[in-house]
Design goal:
The complex is a heterodimer. Chain A contains no helices and eleven strands. Chain A is mainly β. In chain B, β6 and β7 form a beta hairpin. The chains are: A mainly beta, B mainly beta. At the A-B interface, β9 and β10 of A face β4, β5 and β9 of B.
Chain lengths: 114, 112
């Protein structure tokens, strides 16, 4: 089993609030990712990181920001939540083995903005 | 053109059936390929990597055809527990998506 954890599992919050979704992994993986996924829809990459102090935007435009101060921690922040941010957010890290990079996902945070 | 394309399904099959999924990718320089499984409202989990020579894991067989740029997953003797969405993933070095490109997934529903 992968050791990657996301909190909270579910979050219901009002419009305009600032929120931070936590993601931690204990595997020492350098590369980490945030994906957004609506029910029955595909995964969209919103942020990724190659390691400490590295953050990149993914293909899906997102109003969220990320930081990578420690290898094991990759939090995602929304400064002002809106109903359009309602979605499932999945964090992942990857085990680099040459070309055979394997992703391990956390259980996700289901965010509902009212 | 989508970089990784899959038939969205759903594939509705009876228990014991053999079912095959195909996935095509657009970048001929892609280096490695995977099938992930995602249960409803759960996170994706690696099912198997796809090797050039083809590989098998129990009832599951994955194959790669580089010339035609497609990957396949064959499930034999399908079980109720195989019901899930199967995601084709291509590791695309030098690409813009953090190097991993996900297909939209093919939904499988195995009925008794």
């Amino acid at each position: 089993e992968a050791d990657i954890y996301q909190t909270p599992r579910y979050l219901v919050i009002g419009t305009g609030k600032k929120i931070t979704l936590e993601c931690s992994q204990t595997m020492g993986h350098d590369k980490m990712y945030w994906y957004q996924q609506d029910p029955g829809m595909e995964l969209h990459l919103i942020h990724y990181s190659y390691g400490v102090n590295s953050t990149e935007k993914g293909d899906l435009s997102s109003e969220s920001t990320v930081s990578r101060i420690r290898t094991e921690h990759f939090p995602l922040t929304l400064e002002s939540a809106r109903p359009s941010h309602t979605s499932q957010y999945l964090c992942a890290s990857s085990e680099p083995t040459g070309f055979n990079e394997k992703l391990f996902f956390g259980s996700g945070t289901q965010l509902s903005v009212l | 053109r989508k970089e990784v394309e899959q038939d969205p399904g759903p594939f509705n099959v009876p228990e014991g059936a053999t079912v095959a999924f195909n996935c095509t990718y657009s970048n001929s320089a892609s280096q490695s390929f995977f099938w992930y499984r995602q249960d409803c409202r759960k996170e994706p989990k690696l099912l198997m990597s796809v090797y050039s020579s083809g590989n098998e894991d129990g009832r599951f067989t994955a194959q790669l055809n580089r010339a035609s740029q497609y990957i396949s997953l064959l499930i034999r003797d399908s079980k109720l527990s195989d019901s899930a969405t199967y995601l084709c993933v291509v590791n695309d070095y030098g690409g813009s998506q953090g190097n991993l490109i996900f297909g939209k997934g093919t939904k499988l529903s195995v009925k008794p």
